[in-house]
Amino acid sequence: MNGTNPYQDDRGNNDRSIANPTGPGEFPQRKGGDAVAAPGDGPFLVGEAMTGGYGRSGPDILHDCTIAVDKGEIAVIVGPNGAGKSTAMKAVFGMLDLREGHILLDGEDISRLSPQARVAKGMGFVPQNHNIFTSMTVEENLEMGAFIRTDDISRTMEQVYDLFPILREKRRQAAGELSGGQRQQVAVGRALMTEPKVLMLDEPTAGVSPIVMDELFDRIIEVSRTGIPILMVEQNARQALEIADKGYVMVQGRNAYTGTGKELLSDPDVRKSFLGG
Ligand SMILES: Nc1ncnc2c1ncn2[C@@H]1O[C@H](COP(=O)(O)OP(=O)(O)O)[C@@H](O)[C@H]1O
Ligand SMILES: [Mg+2]
Known about the structure:
277 residues, alpha/beta, Rossmann fold, 6-stranded mixed sheet, 10 helices, disordered N terminus, binds adenosine-5'-diphosphate, binds magnesium ion
């Protein structure tokens, strides 16, 4: 790692000096007021005690699994391949029929809502695979992202372009022609077009170089600074936990370890088994 890595000095995500010295406010919350003021004391978004799998008769993949993110925070889910991280994210987004457990958004039980209805409630989701339309231009991808909106989206699009300036340059290009890191920017930008209250990212840095990964993490921190909590799966476990307020280690569909990013990074068992010592 080079000396300019802003995540190395242990300041943690609550140090507001990292990415947004001018304070929050670039991505205004959905109209309708101060919706992020949760009625309860619970986390802003939680998939609680989730048990279930794919289809009606498929085996359970998730076993009493809980993942959550609080207001103003970044929560990171790590764990080996096949642990069920993506399945847990899909469950929170409403793509699985859970046998047990429930999903709460801002204190409201949304367990029975369709994914589309959850988007309307303020959830933004970037899946691990097929998260952009490769034959459409960058700008068309962003327009598609705003499909549920009936108001003027141009301001949000400018905000996305301010966050990811390369996308403004390439807005007329087919998204499939972009590099891996740029495609991930399109995918995140697309999700931001609905002005979500919470953003879920499944491996946003998959397949990119360490430098591009740092850059993407920087942008993700910047998004979180604007008041959008982020629930994210990452295979770059160490780097992700360094920017995490809360971390989950998932193994075989279960919560194996939960703590602050710092706690997990210093836990000898977590280090040995999941962080390469
Ligand atoms: N669409 C699907 N249908 C059936 N089983 C699936 C599906 N997607 C994933 N699985 C299974 O669920 C388990 C967890 O996969 P996944 O959630 O993708 O893990 P991770 O994201 O942690 O790598 C694996 O055993 C995988 O084979
Ligand atoms: Mg996955």
